[in-house]
Amino acid sequence: MITGNLPSTLGKLTTISTILLSNNRFVGQIPSSFGNFKELYTLNLSSNQLTGMLPPQLGYATLIYQEIKSRESCLQQWETSNMIYLEYLNLSNNKLYSTIPTVFKNLSQLHTLDLHSNFFYGTLQILFSKTGSYISIDVSYNKFTGGIHEKIGLNPAMRYINSLILSNNPLGGPIPKSIGHLSQLQVLKMISNRLSGNLPQQLGYIAQLTTMILLSKNKLTASIPKNVFNLNNLQCTFDVSRNQLSGKIPPHTLNIPASAFSQNLNLCDTPLPSCKSL
């Protein structure tokens, strides 16, 4: 296990393509000289004790995969305007605290974003309105507030997304109807938010949503729309427990346990007791 600062002299290796320095005890900031890597495709500095801001010079490196999961970091301001080649960004499992900067919109090549388990705050709108398109977003276990934009499903950045994880943030308001336009979505996790309103029937329009629909521990009301179980290929984990849903559970042939509907106001029928018995 290596300790100490990351040596700035590494920046002299301008033609290096891969740097793997994870699971060590590096401390301090990432040297600005790391911006000299003109052919760098993989940078993995995860599970260290790095602190401070990301140096803006990193944006000059051709980063295809960047994973920085430091254990003791804090980030007050991002300077990412030059990181135009970044495709994969993982800052998860840190103590980073920041809003999402406006320049984030310029990361047109970014398709995979993982910020889970930090202290990021503010709204998510900048994430959803960047240029280019996502494949996966995980911003769970942060402090993001506000609502989910009503036109999230119409935003070009979300056109090809297949995994959207927003759990454990104090996000409020309804689940937008436009979510039905996320035609490539396979995983949807919005657990332990503060979402309210009806469960949109437009969820049933997402033909690829076959893996996971987790909406438990919110404040969703009214009944479960029949369309939600119209997904022909649905073989997923489905959970709407601990909401304020009521009424008859639509007929379905899915193998969903009763616990997935538990602790609501007044849901009934398979796999819960019959409505006639209430």
The order of strands across the largest sheet is 2-4-6-7-8-10-12-14-16-18
Structural class: mainly beta
Total helices: the number is 1
The CATH homologous superfamily is named: Ribonuclease Inhibitor
Shape: elongated
Number of extended strands: 20
At CATH level 2, the architecture is Alpha-Beta Horseshoe
Q: In CATH, what is the class?
A: Alpha Beta
How far apart are the first and last residues' alpha carbons, in Å? 62 Å
The total number of structural domains is 1
Radius of gyration: 21 Å
Strand content: 15-25%
Q: SSE order, as H and E?
A: EEEEEEEEEHEEEEEEEEEEE
List the quaternary state of the chains: single chain
Q: Characterize the main sheet.
A: 10 strands, parallel
Residue windows where pLDDT falls under 50 for at least 5 positions: 71-82
Subcellular location: Membrane
Pfam families: LRR_1 (PF00560)
Keywords: Receptor, Signal
Main location: membrane
